[in-house]
Design goal:
This protein is an alpha+beta fold. It has helices spanning 6-28, 51-62, 163-170; strands at residues 31-36, 39-45, 69-75, 79-82, 117-120, 133-136, 155-161, 174-177, 180-184, 189-195. The chain has one domain (28-195): Beta Barrel (Cyclophilin), CATH 2.40.100.10. The protein has three helices and ten strands. The protein has an eight-stranded antiparallel beta barrel with strand order 1-2-7-5-6-4-3-10. The chain has a two-stranded antiparallel ribbon with strand order 8-9. The chain is globular and about 40 Å long.
Length: 198
């Protein structure tokens, strides 16, 4: 019987371990592509830091909730927000799409509202986030826990491709629609959100 030398065994073990580590990393950091009328944005998500938030976002993604929604709030030197309203918003249909129950706020996870990072939008109630999200266009220190209200906003991923698209959206002209300010004067549509397959 031929014996395999120890260095070769070690190399095989390290190779298998590296593949396993890469697979685990890919599984631990899923990605989604947000296809918009301005281009595509790829976002990497961090369930190790914000498990409930990522699971919530991915469930809305798998349900097709985001398809056909708009970026309804754009403040260029702050953030772009979407995922809740459909284009009927421009005709006065201000009721957002139906959502599941709100989720627990995960703002103490160490991730920061810096440029290119994605977080969940919420009301003044900490545990009120449902489907709406925003992408920071600048470093928004004032949104990190415990600011601005003792709770902060839960960051759960970052843009890894398509920041030029984020910039294009951030630069669109905005105005007022009904009681809403900072609304793009022409709809910026989210055509689809899809998980990136490994």
């Amino acid at each position: 019987m031929r014996m395999i030398k120890l260095p070769l065994l070690a190399a095989i073990f390290l190779s298998v371990s590296a593949v396993a580590d890469d697979a685990a990393a890919a599984q631990a950091s899923p990605r989604v592509t947000i296809k918009t009328t301005k281009g595509e944005i790829v976002v990497e998500l961090y369930p190790d830091k914000a498990p409930k938030t990522v699971a919530n976002f991915l469930q809305y993604t798998r349900d097709g909730h985001y398809d056909g929604t708009i970026f309804h709030r754009v403040i260029g030197h702050f953030m772009i927000q979407g995922g809740g309203f459909e284009p009927g918003f421009y005709q006065g249909k201000f009721q957002p799409k139906a959502t599941r129950a709100p989720i627990e706020l995960e703002s103490r996870n160490g991730l920061r509202n810096d440029v290119g990072w994605i977080a969940m939008a919420r009301t003044n109630v900490p545990d009120s986030a449902t489907s709406q999200f925003f992408i920071n266009t600048v470093d928004n220190d004032g949104l990190n826990h415990p600011s601005p209200d003792g709770h902060g906003y839960a960051v759960f991923g970052k843009v890894v491709s398509g920041m030029e698209v984020v910039g294009a959206i951030a630069g669109v002209p905005t105005g007022t629609v009904g009681p809403f300010r900072d609304v793009p004067t022409e709809a910026v549509l989210i055509e689809s959100v899809r998980e990136v397959k490994p």
